[in-house]
Amino acid sequence: MLYRVIQRSWLKLLRPPVGLAVERQRTYQVFMQIYLFASLAHIAFVPVLVWLDSLLLQLANLACIAINLTAISLHRHCRFSAALLIKILAIVTLITLGGMLMGQHTGFEYYFFVVLFEILISEMRRRYKLLLGLSLLVLSLVSVNALYGTWGHWPHSEASLRVLHSLNLACAGILFAYIILQMHFITERTELRFRTDASHDSLTGVFNRRAIFERADALWQQGTGFSLLLLDADHFKSINDSHGHSAGDQVLRHLARLLDNTLRDGDSIGRVGGEEFLVLLPGTSRHESQSVAHRLRHQLAEQPCRLDALALPVTLSMGLAQSHEATTLRDLVELADRRLYLAKSSGRDQLVIEGGEEVTAYAGGSAAVRVAGDSLL
Question: What residue ranges are annotated as transmembrane (predicted)?
Fold first, then answer.
């Protein structure tokens, strides 16, 4: 039970505040992880400092824990610079004090590099990073060469000094590795989100216009045979007019989910217009593509979009073209578009698989071979 409470609290703290810019969310999560992990490290060091029998170091360590908690609160309220500065001040004071009380070769100096790394990856302006970084380097040199050992020396055996030195080295290394790994993982998640946002339609979750046409172009460039299915929801405007745009959005999401569940793993779907979708079917014959369209129509008829007790049935007009029917991708899309027009102008709720090769057929319909229901007309 306690573990679950801690886990939920940890995840809650890692969740960026509402309204925080996307480009700053990675930094927020990285430094929140740093503050949380540093607090745990200070807590873990409590028995070590008790063993060292230094009341001053124990009090300084407890102060670091309190200051880390304060930094977490400040960071949570987007006061990033203030949070980092008080955290840096606290840890630098502790590691300087530790060397002054315990003498040379204790390993406290390794933490200067962890603090320097935190400064360099922060969102501070470059001149502040440079100023703080140089100040920290100077302080580390002065501490190691002039301050360490001025208030006391190692009171225990040489073997125990080596143990403390190794412990500090390992802890600093773990902190350093933890920060780098968290940056890597959070960067990967952030980049994945950016890529997803850039390639997917925000309303339906399927590919957006640019992404689906990039996939079509890739298939075309590879010389892979494919079918291109262009479909449009019939009388969609009447749904928006009668039930509101939120109902129309729900219908589009339902249609996108149904399309995604109906298609094979290698197929792709994208939203290319308001209620218009484009489906890519690699390696499919005309007959196989017709089967996909029939299956979609049946699924949509059996599972209409529902808003509470209200059912919103939707039919589809579709135009199908195969890659071998055109010499360029643009011509192929235009051919499927003309066939979609033929399907809509000929009564809707049907699939047109032939005709439309000539521009004059765009306004006609006599050249079209239509699939209405399950029958080829």
Answer: 34-52, 58-75, 82-102, 131-151, 163-186
d(CA 127, CA 122): 12
- pTM beyond 0.85, yes or no: no
Q: Most distant CA pair in the chain: distance in Å?
A: 101
The Cα 302–Cα 87 span in angstroms is 60
H helices, E strands: number in the chain: 13, 9
**pLDDT of res. 318:** 93
In the predicted model, what is the mean pLDDT of residues 234-250?
84
- 123, 191, 214, 275: which one is catalytic? 275
Question: What secondary structure does DSSP assign to 108-132, as a single string?
Answer: GGGHHHHHHHHHHTSSS-HHHHHHH
Terminal-to-terminal C-alpha distance of the chain: 65
CA distances from 260 to 3, 219, 222, 253, 292 (A): 38, 19, 24, 10, 12
Q: Classify the C-alpha dihedral 52-56-60-66 as positive or negative.
A: positive
Beta-sheet strands, E only, within the chain: 226-233, 268-271, 276-282, 305-307, 310-312, 316-322, 351-354, 369-372, 375-376
> What domains can be seen in the chain, in order of their start residue?
2-199 (no CATH), 209-376 (3.30.70.270)
Tokens of 139: 């302080």
Average pLDDT on 123-132 reads 92
Q: What per-residue string of b and e applies to 340-369 under the rule 16 or more CB within 10 Å gives b?
A: bbbbbebeebbbbbbbbeeeebbebbeebe
CA 372 – CA 377 distance, rounded (Å): 7
Annotated catalytic, 275?
Answer: yes
Q: Would you tell me how many other CB atoms lie within 10 Å of the CB of residue 91?
A: 22
CA angle 143, 145, 147 (to 5 degrees): 45
